[in-house]
Design a protein that fits this description.
The complex is a heterotrimer of chains A (337), B (254) and C (291). By secondary structure, chain A is an all-alpha fold. Chain A has 14 helices and 4 strands. A two-stranded antiparallel sheet of chain A has the order 1-4. Chain A is globular. In chain C, strand 1 and strand 2 form a beta hairpin. Classes of the chains: A mainly alpha (337), B alpha/beta (254), C mainly alpha (291). The complex binds adenosine-5'-triphosphate and magnesium ion. The site of magnesium ion has 3 residues of chain B, from helix 1.
């Protein structure tokens, strides 16, 4: 049993990587390949929402706006100014962060609820701008002919090639997020989520670290948006409506708040599933709504909790008995005031 | 030398004068105690010193500087650490992470190098973790390093709060009722621990109801009642002060 | 001058409805500590309820109104008992997400059942305008204002004078203490949600002749109600009525003196301005935190 755990612990990451690298061969159908690509893009987006909401405890209700800003930024600089797609990707992140900075300035001092509402309003306004600023965004018609990137002369236009670009970005985002969480900055973010009073007592400048989380999260969201624009080669307002924010929130909750594997799985599964359940039509969002509520009540750790549990069993880090050192039941911290 | 001082400090909540016109000073390297009946304003005084509340009157001085207008986190950076009466741990985080957060002011790795795992971050992490382990060993918490803080027993949680507060080796440590909820065996250990902390160069201010702890280790004691300071002095003076006996010691101990 | 008064009346009558929605937010915020992101959707439910009762079932208004209100109450109760009650002691994050989930659920359920197209609703109060001193007042204006203020008055009497109301206020102030005093906290929570749903529903019914009845009505009205509540200080019932009316009047002047496209962005503008300059709102108390 011990050797099995050992083998598992060493090999799990390679098995996962092998699976990811060969995925395009498992999905020969071009259409489903595109959906898989979209799933990975949403995994990136969900991960970035998770940095904000899951790790820092800041709920952004109109998060899709930053994804949209990224998509439009890249599409505009590439199609109108003729800049390189790669520059577009980078700029997408930067511009998205820039907007979050402006939005964060007045709201980071305030309680989380106000922030949630401000982002909701921001999402609405952004959508209206996409829709009505026709000279720049193309209005309802959107921006057509967004080019695919090229890599040393190889066009990444086929979905099977673009897949690897998204995969690389996804892996980078995962690594950066993981490193972040295991750092001074990440811990400050977690502290704010857990107990902002204690965080202050530790010397954490709460508004500043909220802002850092916001900037990082929206940078990734912007890049994800650009990835989206260059994948479907067309950007229009209806991809960034309120309902999409709801979908991303569902992905995060279903995946598991505060879990990296959960976010990826949530983004991926909730993008793929509706494609296989097309007959459901509009019921998709009804189910999302119900699923959010059910999971938050019955399984707040979501799919990520399940994954981590299975992983713990397989790698032998969960053993019966060792976990329960605790005898005394601890009073809730709010019990005395 | 006086390291920490309040001058005529006070705060009222609506009509209630929780603290009023309190002069309180702490000598560097000493153990000072604040005592007083329930609701006397002891915790509120701590909150005023630490910057959680803004006083309606008076000033706070620390290391010779007027810090009345400073934010809480800035005071922590200056070397003011505290524990809470009603335990404020990061419950979902591990014991290790909780104490690592105590080192927030002593570390400075920026977000970018954090994400990229640059050498400066890895070095800082290594050193921090080492320091945390030393502190955990000192407080007998090293077996629990990977447990969630919220899952620890009450007494261990209290210890963890102390660990988190002293890991950065602050100038002044404010302890709010460290002995509450502990059994008699642990009281002795606690008293010794506090003395050891003081001997390591940290000035200690503690709020405590357990008189044997207070009397045995304090250099100076201040007594609050209804938000006002009614006496201060060394343990001998406090024991024989009639007003104190009247207000506090005369009543049943908690 | 007449134009000014005309816009003022128009603004007050819309604002009274915003105030009703705002109070729904405030009641739940006070009792539960979390903003109910599904509150706007209760407005939409109210509009559909009256549509079903009056237009689809053909009930006369006097019967349709109570029936629709009853529907709102039942839905509010069902939502509370299934989605919110299990989370009564959960942390704010989980509760906030639950309210967002409920909103998504309701909005899309209605969309699946009734489609995304708008339904027109007959003008129930009649279109014969009344001329008073050169001002044209349509019955809708009067009814909105009368019902809006009437309900707020009733609510405050209920909260201040009745036993249940008093115990609800105690629950809102300190849930733990209320529980220790033997107050039935769960029942009070249910009542709070039912009342908030009913108030939202009322607003939806009154609004349906003005706007089309459409599943996204809740998002629109939710934003306005929220802006009103925020302006009023988020914790105060009269404050949110004042906030709602101020917003209504601002919108009406914006539309009258500038253009109707200005009107749409006013609630957002108010929202951001309040967040930046007046986080405690007009009547809210500065939140003192307890350490
Ligand atoms: N944020 C606040 N808002 C309103 N009243 C407060 C606040 N903080 C403290 N008080 C009140 O101030 C008074 C003093 O409280 P404090 O907690 O300082 O007492 P204490 O001396 O620490 O008592 P104990 O020994 O029970 O801990 C109490 O009446 C308390 O209710
Ligand atoms: Mg106290």
């Amino acid at each position: 049993m011990k050797t099995f755990h050992k083998i598992y612990r060493v090999s799990r990451i390679w098995i996962l990587l092998l699976f990811a690298l060969t995925l395009p061969y498992w999905i020969p159908n071009n259409y489903y390949l595109q959906v898989a690509n979209l799933g990975m893009i949403f995994a990136i987006l969900t991960l970035s929402l998770n940095i904000l909401a899951g790790y820092t405890g800041l709920f952004s209700v109109g998060f899709i706006a930053f994804y949209g800003i990224g998509a439009y930024t890249s599409a505009i600089v590439v199609t109108r100014l003729g800049w390189s797609v790669w520059v577009g990707f980078l700029l997408a992140g930067v511009v998205s962060s820039l907007f979050s900075f402006l939005l964060g300035l007045p709201t980071m001092r305030l309680r989380g609820m106000y922030f949630a509402v401000a982002t909701l309003a921001f999402g609405e306004i952004t959508y209206q701008v996409f829709l009505n600023w026709t000279s720049i965004t193309g209005g309802t018609k959107g921006i057509k002919g967004v080019p695919s990137p090229e890599f040393f002369g190889i066009s990444l236009r086929p979905y099977s090639k673009y897949f690897y670009l998204i995969l690389i970005v996804l892996v980078i985002v995962i690594l950066l997020t993981r490193n972040l969480i295991n750092s001074r900055t990440g811990r400050a973010m977690l502290a704010i989520r857990e107990n902002d009073i204690a965080a202050e007592a530790m010397g954490v400048d709460v508004p500043k670290f909220k802002m850092i989380a916001f900037l990082i999260a929206t940078f990734f969201a912007g890049v994800a948006g650009a990835l989206y624009g260059h994948e479907v080669r067309y950007v229009s307002p209806e991809s960034f409506v309120n309902a999409e924010s709801a979908a991303v929130l569902a992905m995060m909750v279903v995946g598991g708040i505060g879990s990296i594997p959960g976010s990826i799985l949530g983004g991926f599964v909730l993008t793929m599933l509706p494609e296989y359940l097309r007959f459901l039509g509009n019921i998709r969002l009804v189910i999302y709504g119900a699923a959010i509520v059910a999971i938050i009540i019955f399984a707040p750790k979501g799919l990520g909790g399940l994954i981590e549990w299975i992983d713990g069993l397989l790698s032998g880090t969960i053993k019966r008995g060792t976990h329960k050192k605790i005898t005394e039941k601890v009073e809730d911290k709010n019990g005395h005031s | 030398m006086v390291i920490l001082e309040t001058k005529g400090i006070g705060i009222h909540f609506g009509g209630l004068k929780a603290v009023s016109n309190v002069d309180f000073s702490v000598e560097e390297g000493s153990i000072s105690a604040i005592i007083g009946p329930n609701g006397a304003g002891k915790t509120t005084l701590f909150n005023l010193i630490a910057g959680f509340y803004t006083p309606t009157e008076g000033t706070v001085h620390f290391k010779g500087k007027d810090i009345t207008k400073m934010k809480t986190f800035e005071r922590t950076y200056m070397g003011l650490a505290r524990t809470f009466q009603n335990i404020n741990l990061f419950r979902e985080l591990s014991v290790m992470d909780n104490v690592l957060l105590g080192l927030h002011t002593k570390t400075k790795c920026d977000p970018i190098s954090s994400m990229l795992n640059l050498p400066n971050k890895l070095k800082e992490e290594r050193e921090s973790r080492k320091k945390v382990m030393e502190t955990l060993e000192f407080l007998n918490l090293d077996h629990y390093v990977n447990e969630k803080a919220g899952s620890l027993a009450y007494g261990l949680q209290k210890n963890l709060e102390i660990a988190r507060a002293i890991v950065s080796h602050p100038t002044v440590l404010l302890l709010d009722e460290p002995a509450s909820g502990l059994n008699t065996n642990d009281l002795e250990t606690l008293s010794q621990g506090i003395v050891t902390i003081r001997n390591s160069g940290i000035t200690v201010v503690l709020i405590e109801h357990k008189m044997d702890v207070v009397m045995s280790i304090s250099d100076k004691i201040a007594v609050l009642n209804f938000g006002e300071k009614i006496a201060d002095g060394d343990p001998g003076e406090i024991c024989s002060n009639p007003e104190v006996i009247d207000a506090y010691l005369g009543k049943d101990e908690e | 001058m007449n134009f000014f008064l005309q816009q003022l009346i128009q603004g007050i009558s819309m604002g009274a409805l915003y105030g009703l929605i705002a109070i729904g937010y405030v009641l739940i915020y006070n009792a539960w500590g979390v903003l109910n992101f599904a509150q706007g959707d209760m407005v939409m439910i109210g509009a559909f309820a009256i549509l079903i009762a009056h237009v689809f079932m053909g009930l006369p208004l006097l019967i349709a109104f109570p029936v629709a209100i009853l529907m709102c109450c039942i839905i509010g109760f069902l939502v509370e008992i299934s989605a919110f009650r299990p989370l009564i002691d959960a942390n704010n994050t989980r509760r906030l997400i639950a309210t967002i989930g409920v909103g998504i659920f309701l909005r899309n359920l209605i969309r699946v059942v009734f489609g995304a197209d708008p339904y027109p609703f007959p003008s129930v109060f009649g279109n014969t305008a009344v001329e008073i001193g050169g001002l044209t007042i349509i019955p809708q204006n009067i009814w909105n204002t009368v019902i809006g203020f009437g309900l707020v008055l009733l609510l405050s009497i209920f909260l201040k004078q009745t036993v249940i109301g008093k115990s609800m206020r105690a629950t809102a102030q300190d849930r733990e203490a209320a529980r220790l005093m033997g107050i039935n906290v769960k029942r009070n929570m249910s009542i709070t949600f039912i009342i908030s749903s009913a108030l939202g529903g009322f607003a939806g019914m009154l609004i349906s002749p003005v706007f089309f009845v459409i599943p996204t009505l809740g998002t629109l009205m939710g934003n306005k109600g929220f802006a009103g509540a925020l302006l009023g200080g988020i914790t105060s019932n009269p404050g949110s009525m004042i906030g709602g009316i101020s917003l209504g009047v601002l919108e009406s002047f914006g539309a009258g003196y500038f253009s109707s496209s200005v009107q749409a962005s006013i609630s957002f503008g108010v929202l951001f301005l309040v967040l930046i300059f007046l986080p405690a709102g007009l009547l809210g108390k500065k939140e003192s935190r307890k350490v």
